[in-house]
Amino acid sequence: MCPEGRQVFAEMSVVENLEMGAHTRSDNEQKSDVEKMLDLFPVLRQRAKQRAGTLSGGEQEMLAIARALMARPKLCIFDEPSLGLAPKIVEEVEQILARIKAMGTTIVLVEQNAAMALRLADRAYVLEAGEVVLQGTGQELKNDPQVSKAYLGY
Question: What is the pTM of this model?
């Protein structure tokens, strides 16, 4: 799970945070996976020894995503990954999620940025007061007039 609000280990370095993501693993590939995450997120490579608490919000979100991937999940839940980020960083996060999806990891995305969520979604569900009120493919809901008016602003 990649929780809302990033929740990085602020006093630990970027690499130490990544290592924490693999703490339940017992294989010998953790160091190579750290390298893979640093390749996937080049800005983190530049900041590898820097304390996580000193990273920008967008960099912290990338670190939180990379840390979650260090567990090698088959399914990863992302809770509001765009929350509080600048529009340009939101675009980067969307591209990262698309790459993760393309790598074969199933994603459950809880997101208020409906446009981004629907672009990424194979299946989408609209909840109101905890109940599913609409469901379909991301494309179907993106084209649904009710969704467009209420959530997409057009």
Answer: 0.86
Intervals of the chain under pLDDT 70: none
SS (H, E, C) the chain: CECCCCCCCCCCEHHHHHHHHCCCCCCCCHHHHHHHHHHHCHHHHHCCCCEHHHCCHHHHHHHHHHHHHCCCCCEEEEECCCCCCCHHHHHHHHHHHHHHHHCCCEEEEECCCHHHHHHHCCEEEEEECCEEEEEEEHHHHHHCHHHHHHHHCC
Beta-sheet pairing, 123-128 with 75-79: unpaired
